[in-house]
Amino acid sequence: xxxTSNQKTYTDLLIQYxxxxxxxxxxxxxxxxxxxxxxxxxxxxxxxxxxxxLVLLIETYEQEHYPMGTPTPAATLESLMHEFDVxxxxxVEILGSLDIVNEVVNGQRGVxxxxxxLLAKYFNALSPGLSMTAIDFR
Length: 138
Fold this sequence. Notes:
Elements: H1 10-17, H2 25-39, H3 45-65, H4 73-83, H5 92-95, H6 98-105, H7 113-126
Helix pairs in contact: 1-3, 2-3
């Protein structure tokens, strides 16, 4: 949606789109299509408010119908290794051996508190915006 000299008010937009809780897959797809169209242009303040509402409705539907479980420590470690292109050999100093690294990544072995703290410190050093803690690896 692009702003025009005849900008609609938020009330006008609510009347046009009539947002409501999403309960079906068709409603979900319709809301996604509206949001995608809105993402392709500059939004007025009213359009931005509607956009935020639709995103909340979509997220609520997704949480209910496509729940994501809590990641396991092994999945967290594997994901971080992939994201930061960390080879298993790079973690030997923290975990003790390549076999142990592979067992931890495969979920066959846990890590100690001190190893978890070192892993958090290691990955936080790779990215200043990251805020991993030992809990993420335990």
